[in-house]
Every structure is written in structure tokens, then in C-alpha cells.
Amino acid sequence: MRSFVVRSVESALRRRGAASSNRRLFSSDSVPERKVAILGAAGGIGQPLALLMKLNPLVSNLALYDIAGTAGVAADVGHINTRAQVAGYVGEEQLGKALEGSDVVIIPAGVPRKPGMTRDDLFNINAGIVKSLCTAIAKYCPSAVVNMISNPVNSTVPIASEVFKKAGTYDEKKLFGVTTLDVVRAKTFYTGKAKVPLRECLQLIDVNVPVVGGHAGITILPLFSQATPAGNDLSTEDIKALTKRTQDGGTEVVEAKAGKGSATLSMAYAGAIFADACLKGLNGVPDIVECSFVQSSITELPFFASKVRLGKNGVVEVLGLGPLSDYEEEGLENLKPELKASIEKGIKFARDN
Ligand SMILES: NC(=O)c1ccc[n+]([C@@H]2O[C@H](COP(=O)([O-])OP(=O)(O)OC[C@H]3O[C@@H](n4cnc5c(N)ncnc54)[C@H](O)[C@@H]3O)[C@@H](O)[C@H]2O)c1
Ligand SMILES: O=C(O)C[C@H](O)C(=O)O
């Protein structure tokens, strides 16, 4: 499995023409030590994400933290014969140890949706969880890159920023809302619909669809006009249907799971891709670009998801939106009021509590 993962990553890099400088990163002698902490590691996302991070050759230490259940997950994952040393931490008194020395902290802690709920309905519970975890991050690993998965991402990222500002540790280049699942879905749905060459279809990694805005309903704005390879035969109706399916992707899974939670496996996959991109950036691998919800000035909103170039200190550059179709321009204007309200709600919560 490990060699499969390494081979896949290597061949992806080779296709990007960067193999010779990067291949060295996969020899265990030259790869820097990197500690990754997962907060909420015993949950539906946390467990498969722990597995995927254990398979990532860039990780040397993997800290699995939750309020219960991490001993079993750590013992289980820890038996896999890959590089990362795994340790489980449980309860608030062990949170500091879990975080100390972390380069990347991934947060999938919190409650998931049930059918009929919006992501914002999770705010009352998850806002407090995120706030207390970010308070600990500010204390124990203030320079870590933070990957926020807990919903509602449109509010939890602003909460995290306020907590870090209060603690005097805020670095806007190191705080990321994970929107990779929207990109993964957009790529999958697009590949199914667009008449792109079969070779590309089999290698989803070669299909690209930027997704901008935020991570809830209409705030999720896939830019199919910029998809590569171009799906020339797509009608306006096709684009509208693909956009709606991408925006409703989370709800599709929540309904299919019928009360047993939301996306976990595809989210773990998406979270592992994004964390891997952050690690590569930290390690100096050039030209790492992913979409993420970050502090931004590309619109009038203080946080916005767009393509972001990653580097040794987190965000190197927030990339612009590029040319939009009329349909996408309309989607952009329509999403702004909801996204603005969610951002302000998060900021207010963090300032008042
Ligand atoms: N960003 C995205 O694209 C995306 C995708 C899917 C799910 N999510 C969100 O991720 C979150 C987790 O989803 P899940 O399916 O893994 O839920 P889950 O209930 O299966 O797991 C959540 C875990 O968080 C733990 N937890 C609760 N409070 C904690 C605390 N204070 N400290 C540490 N751990 C704590 C729980 O014990 C549990 O193990 C939800 O908010 C969900 O909406 C986001
Ligand atoms: O939809 C959800 O509640 C979970 C997540 O945000 C998703 O997009 O799958």
C-alpha cells in the first residue's frame, strides 16, 4: 500500500515535470521531520484520515487526539509499517502534549449534520469546540499550519482567526478552511459528464476544477468554465446541473447516510490531499496550488476560498478568480450576503465569548 501511495504521488509529480527535484523528498534520509496532529481523530473523518496520514511518507510523527477512543485508533494505525510514529492522546489534560511541536494541525472535531440540518445548525456546538481547540493551538504550537475541517467552515475559520488574534499568534498565512472536498466532488461530477479524453478520466488527478467562495450551499461556487481539460460539449443546462450537484454534494451524502452522519471517507481523502499539499509547501516543493478558504482580499469579504499557492510559511499567494462566465459572475454576487453573514457570525462569537 505504501509503495502504491508513494508511486502514485511520484508519478503525479513526474507528470507535472517536477520529478527530479522532488523524488529526493521521498527517500527517508532527506525528508524533514514533520509532526501532524489530528484533533477529533477517533471520529468518522478522524479515523480514515489518521490512516491516510500514516501512509504519507512526509509525516514523521502523527498525534491522534480526541475526547475518547484514541488509544485504540493509535494502536491500530500504529501497527502499519510506514515512517510515522503514532501516539494517541485523550482528554484535555493530554491536548498540550498532542500539539507540542506540530507542523500541521488538522481539525475534524465536532458534530456532523443529520438530514434536514444546514451546516450552520452545527454552529452552537462546534463553535465552542473549535474555540477551545484553537486556544490550545495558540498556546502549544502557535506556528503550526491549521487545517480546519469542522463545520460550518464559513464561520469556524473566522472563529479561529479571532482566537489567534486574541492570543497574539495569528498568522493569516497559516490558517486554512479545508474546501478540498468541494474540488474533489466537482472533479468527479465533471469527469462523469464532460467528454474529456479517457486517459484523463482514469487519472482524476489530471482533471482540474477550481471551486471558490465558501463551504456551504450556494457559497460553494465551482468554476466549470475554467475546468481542464475543457469539456467543450457541456451545455448551459449541464453546467447548472453540475454546479447544483457540487453545491449539494454534502447533503446528498447526509441524506444517503440517513441520520448516521455526513461525508467521512471522501472527506478523509480530501483532507489527506490538502494536508499533503501543506506539507509539501512547508518542505519547499515548488508550485503547490490548492483551493482553500483563507483570509483574502480578492473580493470585499475578509475570508474567501480560491486557489492558493503554498510554500514554506503557508500561503505564498492568494490567486485571483480568473475570468468568470456570466453564470459564475451571478453565482459570485449571490453567494456574498450569506458568506458575509457566516463570517460575521463567527467573528462575533469569538469576540463575545
Ligand atoms: N470541511 C468539510 O468539507 C467537511 C466534510 C465533512 C465533514 N465535515 C465536518 O467535520 C466534523 C466532523 O465530522 P465527523 O463525521 O468526523 O463527526 P464524528 O462525530 O464522527 O467525529 C467527530 C469527533 O470529534 C470528537 N470531538 C468532539 N469534541 C471534541 C473536542 N473538544 N476535542 C477533540 N475532539 C472532539 C468526537 O469525540 C468525535 O470523535 C463535522 O463538523 C462535519 O460537519 C466537514
Ligand atoms: O455536508 C456536510 O454537512 C459535511 C461536509 O461539509 C460536506 O460537504 O460533506
Concise account of the structure shown:
It is built from 13 helices and eleven strands.
Total E-strand runs: 11
Largest sheet: 6 strands, parallel
List the total number of helices.
13
Which structural class do the helices and strands define?
alpha/beta
Distance between the first and last residues' Cα: 46 Å
Report low-confidence residues grouped into runs of 5 or more: 1-28
Rg over CA atoms: 19 Å
| Percentage of β-strand residues | 15-25%
List the strand order in the largest sheet: 3-2-1-4-5-6
Bound molecule kinds, no repeats: nicotinamide-adenine-dinucleotide, (2S)-2-hydroxybutanedioic acid
On the 0 to 100 scale, the average pLDDT is 91
Helix percentage: 40-55%
Net shape: globular
- Order of H and E elements: HHEHEHEHEHEHEHHEEHHHEEEH
Structure in words:
The chain has 13 helices and eleven strands. By secondary structure, the chain is an alpha/beta fold. A six-stranded parallel sheet has the order 3-2-1-4-5-6, sandwiched between helices. A three-stranded antiparallel sheet has the order 9-10-11. Helix 3 packs across helix 12, helix 7 crosses helix 13 (326-352) and helix 8 runs antiparallel to helix 10. The protein is globular. 48% of the residues are buried. Residues 1-28 have low confidence and may be disordered. Bound molecules: nicotinamide-adenine-dinucleotide and (2S)-2-hydroxybutanedioic acid (LMR). The site of (2S)-2-hydroxybutanedioic acid (LMR) has 11 residues, from helix 11.
